[in-house]
Amino acid sequence: MEWMYLVPALPFLGALILILFSGKIGKPGVIAVGCGSIGLAALVTIVAGWQFMQSGVPAFSQHLWEWLRVGDFSIGVNLRLDALSLSFAFVITFVGWLIHIYSTGYMSDDPDFARFFACMNLFVGSMLMLVLADNLLLMYLGWEGVGLCSYLLIGFWYKAPENGAAARKAFIVTRVGDTAMAIALFLLVQHTGSLQLSVVLERAQSLWAAGDPTVVWIAFLLLGGAVGKSAQLPLQTWLPDAMAGPTPVSALIHAATMVTAGVYLIARTNVIFSLAPAAQTAVAITGAVTLLLAGFSAWVQTDIKRVLAYSTISQIGYMFLALGVGAWSAAIFHFITHAFFKALLFLGAGAVIHALHHEQDMFKMGGLRKSLPGVFLVFLIGSLSLAAIPFISSGWYSKDQIIWLAGTAAGGRPVYAFAAVLGAFITAAYTTRMMLLVFFGKEQTHVHHKPGPEMMVPLYVLAVCSTLAGFLELPHTLGHFTWLSDFLQPVLPEVVTQHASVAAEWGLQTITAGLAALAIYITWRLLNAPFPKEAGAFLKSGWGFDAAYDVLFVQPFVRIARLNRKDIIDNVYTGLAAITRGLHRMMSATQSGIIRWYVLGVVMGAVLILSVIIWRHSM
Amino acid sequence: MGTAFYIAAAVAVLSTIMVITRYNIMHALLYFNVSMLSVAVVFYLYGAPFMAALELIVYAGAIMVLIIFFVMMLNLGSQTAGEERSWMTPGVWIGPSVLCLVLLAELVYLMVQPADTGAEIKVVDPKEVGKSLFGPYMLAVELAGMLLMAGIVGAYHLGRQKKKIVHRFLENSPS
Amino acid sequence: MINATTAGLVLAGVLFTLGLISMLIRRNIIFMLVSVEIMLNAAGLAFIVAASRWGQPEGQVMFMFILAMAAAEVSVGLALILQLYHQLKSLDSDEASRMRG
């Protein structure tokens, strides 16, 4: 565990080497450094995690050095390893490593190969910093670091202006949330006098009663930060556009890891949210509404990556719902399974896109079942997880737990459960639609070239993980195995369930499974059925959020900017300059070059001085 | 204070007024010489006969003659008198004159004010002047010598006519 | 009845003021040079009067320095005027100004 600092340090070191020496080490060197650093970090994480589990301590923290000190207020670069951060760190390093390996194949033709891996390493390092940080300021550093890397990688192909616009949009929209989070941190420092996680959470409990306005404010502001980073309502608009980046980036940043930072933040500060019931209800409502809206949008997309993007928003909505009802460990469980199967789906989509020579429109695909059998197989496994097909997919175990707890947990309501079930139905529907469009039917685009082993092996590994990860937790109906919940027990509060019978759970699971089957059947039958055009366009644009924000925020801002085009405040400074200039003109008017005027000046001065002397004299 | 001083002073002031009102520069310079001569008389009356002699020799004799020869060299004489007349409109000279007269009034007021208790004129022996010149003021004399040297070199350098450079093929052609 | 020192200083002041007036109203450079000479001469007169008032040689020493300076000034000044006249074909001092102030 003493080697824990290597976990974020190795990716940072890799990024540094790649930035400085990318020209010298050549492509094999870039691969070795880029993948090797992440692989080593994954190895260290596993070893440290093993030791951590053996030791049985609830949390292990490591002090590296003092970052800053102001009076009594001190921020150290401290790392903290506990069940929550270990879960995240494991997923980040392991999935990140697989995606890196995949990228060596996917990006092999790209001229900016080294830059790509440098950014990816920097991202992994920042994300590890975020989850391993022992204080909120260091966490904020990682938080902003991943935002920066997201910007760099969305705009990776910066020569196309729309990619740059998408990158800027992602950066600015998440900045709204980051500002809220920064204010929350200020409030926490003001009231608790510390940013150390353990200290903050401990003092929060003694400082505030449940529902105290201050803590509600802080919780809402933290929720704002989480919503921005995790692309939840109302700041979800950036994620679909973020698909402008290379597909491995979408898989790593915009599906598996970074977007779940909000989930991590809320889980980490669960004490504060528990003290603020209003904010926690808001988390649940945000999650429920987002999962439905994004699910409907995913249903009508034509771009395969945008389907997955909306699907990601929807699945993170599930996690928020779980957090909101107090099912903390269920959210983390869904995070783990989602990371596996969504990375799998994105990488599979990437393989398809790569094979079809950067064709992303699903209606131009089709029949790939025969030409890309390996990809079809792994994509099918991922889709089963996403659609939550019972027993054989990990997604079912995690999602079913959330659906069950949405109704029965302490903060649960039947309406949440209903939203979650409806969401599951839509998820199954759009997943089926995607599968049918891409892999069945008539072949429309010829396969350009098949993915190589460096792309296929990570896919197989992820496919296995997508299947097996579900067995970390089993529902009551299947033996009630709760390894992950027990593991997370020291960090996250236990899920308090209202009284509910196993029979009811059986019933709910049957309904869910039946609805999924129904969704598959309906989609299969009605695949090419006509769809109301206006409604389709509305859903496809993500419920018109972009247009609404354009009218509500962008255009008024542009108008104000235009009003202030001459920069009203600047007039003060230009006025100063103008006054100086006027004085200068007056002074330069005296420099006529005509000697008599100079002499006249001297004479006037003499008269003045003598007058003063006489005046003083006669006093 | 004898009549001689008043006569000399009156001549000096009148001739200086003539200097500043003449349009013809030669006339002005000659009046200025008269002014110098009367000032030399005043020097003599104030017990400085050697300085009176220097005034005559250096100022009236050398400097004024230099200017006069210069004006003659430029052949200005009456040529510029008309121009000078056109420049001297009342609008030009009334303002500065009034200002300067105010200055003079203030000066005189200050000089008359401290009713000096009738100190008599004391003759300063030229020998004393010579002693202090080559005693405590030795360095200043050296500096004055260097200044004159610089004046000579500067005057030579500035006054030299630049040789016109004409191409040898053009030398014979009428220009 | 004013005493001798005051009378001499008043004479110096009158001469100086006349030189100053001439300096201010003339445009011809040679006249301006002559005006400077008038003023220098008046200053010298003030020194002589002061020397006789105190019976000290310093005033006359100063007059000799003024004399040397006036000689140097006139020689260099005349050379400058000569150059200017060759350049501008005029003795108008305003012609020499290229400043636009």
Please explain how this structure is put together.
- The complex is a heterotrimer of chains A (619), B (175) and C (101).
- Chain A has 619 residues and is mainly alpha-helical.
- Among the domains of chain A are: 341-529, no CATH class; 567-618, no CATH class.
- Chain A contains 25 helices and 2 strands.
- In chain A, helix 1 (6-55) crosses helix 2 (83-106) and helix 7 runs parallel beside helix 12 (277-300).
- Chain B has helices at 3-21, 25-45, 49-74, 81-87, 90-112, 126-133, 138-159.
- The mean pLDDT of chain B is 84.
- Chain B is mainly alpha-helical.
- Chain B is built from 7 helices and no strands.
- Chain C has helices at residues 4-25, 29-54, 58-88.
- Chain C is elongated, with a radius of gyration of 17 Å.
- At the B-C interface, helix 1, helix 2, helix 3, helix 4 and helix 5 of B face helix 1, helix 2 and helix 3 of C.
Global structural class of chain B: mainly alpha
Share of helical residues of chain A: over 70%
The CATH topology of the largest domain in chain B:
Four Helix Bundle (Hemerythrin (Met), subunit A)
Rough outline of chain B: extended
Strand content of chain A: under 5%
Low-confidence stretches of chain B: none
Mean pLDDT of chain B: 84
